[in-house]
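Sample entry as discussed:
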Amino acid sequence: MENKTVGSAAVAAQPSASAREPELASRALARIQKCIEKAEDQRHRISASGALTNEQEAEIRDSFNIQIKAEIAKILAPLHPADIAYILEALPTDDRLLVWDLVRNNQDGDVLVEVNDGVRETLIDAMDREELVDAMETLDTDEIADLVEDLPPDVVAEVQEGLTTKERAQLRAAMSYPEETVGARMDFEFVSVREEWSLETVFRYLRGFEELPELTDMVFVVDRNQKLKGALPVSKIVISDPERSVRELMKSDVLTLNPLDEATDAAQAFERYDLVSAPVVDETGRLVGRLTVDEVMDVIRESSDEDAYAAVGLSDEQDLFGSVWEAAKSRWIWLGVNLCTAFVASRVISCFEGTISRVVALAALLPIAANIAGNTGNQTLTLLVRSIAMGQVTDSNTIDLFKKELCVAIINGLMWGAVAGLGAWLLYYDSAFGMKLGLVMFLAMMLNIIVGALVGLIVPLTLKKLDKDPAMGSSVLLTFITDSGGFLIFLGLAGLFF
């Protein structure tokens, strides 16, 4: 009726939550780095002494390295796989591989699941075929599915051979769903009961498990065909009369997810309704899995990372200490775009060389007008990208959003334009054109703030219409438009007045 097989080996390797502290990983990282530094210092001292033979140096160095490795292994032993992943991501490649060799074998698979794609690639490359197969055997099928794309085909084939028929079917199902869907994230371990059962029967049934699947806050109620009828909170089983039936106490209005639903949409539902888990049903209403809050937190974190990197044209899958050449190449596109936009902005300024030469003060005030447009645009852009990610921006409310942001920009433009205009007049009040400079500054600031807000709206909405990530390169495009537009507006007004 359900999957009772829980990854006991992986669970047993992890310390209890009460033994962990939020700062444990960072403190462990500092201690490991200190160990590595001690090994480096010892190596340099031995080499600098010159009093020992090569054999003596090697013997002392090997003995010291054994001590250091034992110390690092002791630091790693109590750590959760997520903490080890954090440490590995923060170490340069050579140090990372040294530490990776000291990770306990029954944690290899869990750590591979936790690290980012770039680091995972280096760790897998450092493992032989047998090590990879052993690491996969400690994982559940949904976790294996997360790693399949990074594994050599022969390893995948051997891992599949070691699975039961049911587990192979689950693995194929998980691999069949697109990466960003609920199906690719769902857990196949769940508990289901029948609505005609009494609570006493349910309680006896649950006691038959060696351990319940993690984050089991409810058991799912299904019929003979595994179609979902509702859910029964575990708390109800504990506190209610054992003679009462599941049908009496179950909740029938449970939020259900489809395997093809977007994972980010599911994450929003979890946040909105404060869920711990939710059933996943197929098109026929059959229960096929569940989504849990730990996976949802991963979705939220990954989405946040993607947006932050995409805004400046980077990939979130990069290894902090990866190949210098690959890192350089990954930044070429948007650096090239930036260079082109900078040339465009410089050409805008050069068109007004005559005006600037007559009123040199314009050169000093020029950056102010452009920067305020960029800041305004970034505020609007950040608000809109987040709202789009949360699904709050739709075709029906886009016009209202434009109106609201335009009104905000006009109010801010009038207020801060007046402040900037007054400041420019005070700075140059004793010159022949102090009053004109103040007026130009006021108008330029007001218009630039309005333009910045409009660009902050138009750029992500346009990307969304083109089915692109609204955050992708949006910061670069915003900077280009607001800089060039800001220069053009400020110097154009100056040309009219002077």
